[in-house]
Amino acid sequence: MRALSSSGPARPYIERLRVLRRLIWPSPVRCSKAARWRCLAGDVAAFMDAVGIEKADVFGYSMGAATGLQLALRHPGKIKKLAAASPAYDATGFQPDYRAFIPQMTPEMFLGMPFAEEYRKLAPNPDGFPALVRKLIALEHEPMRWEADVKALKTPVLIITGDADVTTLEHSVAMFRLLGGGGMGDMGKPLSQSRLAVLPANSHTAVIGRPNLLLTHVEAFLKGETPKGMQQ
Question: What is the DSSP string of 134-175?
């Protein structure tokens, strides 16, 4: 799941993931007045009901990762595994520079970016991009304090983050530990069902542009492949 279209940077993901699964690529930004995390997750759940999907593996990037996380928290029966690229569960986990930038965001900042032109080519309403951006900016101001819910989550989660991502490395590690990860292997105990992958020399916008590197982790996670250590 992602806020934008299924073309451009998304194309390599579609081509490879559809080999593993029946693939559907929703853009859950239909909330009428203002986007809310619970509303976006509800959109996806309603979409799954409408197309007859009882349960699915979910892959989301950025806003799509947070939406996927909310789907797992609010509709746990609908999700088998969640692969989340650049996720956050608390707004305090964003980098200080990004938190300072949020109050300065305006739709005009995004109108000249490549995905704005892509939206105009593909969207049913080509002139709707400014309204979409206003919703997404409002979403950045939406409260995000999900620690207790994440700690109780039973869904296996793959956290993928860049080492220069929009969230701090400490936040990603903290999320992994909330999900039961971070312990030592090779001690005779099973590894956590959740996983953490840190991509080197990757910023937030670069993460999604490395499909071969990222999908190596996603595919192994969906297949349940785990490297075997001496005590496994």
Answer: HHHHHHHTS--B-HHHHHT--S-EEEEEEEE-SB-HHHHHHH
What's the CATH number where 35 sits?
Answer: 3.40.50.1820
**How many structural domains comprise the chain?**
1
Counting other chains too, the contacts that 24-27 makes at CB distance below 8 Å and 24 or more residues apart are: 24/51, 24/53, 24/56, 25/1, 26/1, 27/1, 27/2, 27/3
Q: Is residue 217 part of a domain?
A: yes
- Does residue 187 sit within a domain? no
Residue 2 φ then ψ, to 5°: -155, 155
Residue 178 lies in a domain: no
10 Å CB burial of residue 184 (0-12, 13-18, 19+) is exposed
pLDDT tens for each residue of 11-58: 677 777 766 667 676 654 555 445 688 888 998 999 999 999 999 999
- Is 189 among the domain residues? no
Joined tokens for residue 25? 């690529």
Residue-number span of the structural domain to which 81 is assigned? 8-160+196-223
What local confidence, expressed as pLDDT, does residue 117 receive? 84
Helices marked H in the chain — which ranges? 11-20, 37-51, 63-74, 96-101, 114-122, 129-140, 147-151, 169-178, 204-207, 211-223
pLDDT digits (tens, 9 = 90+) for 54-113: 999 999 999 899 999 999 999 999 999 999 999 999 999 999 999 999 999 999 998 888
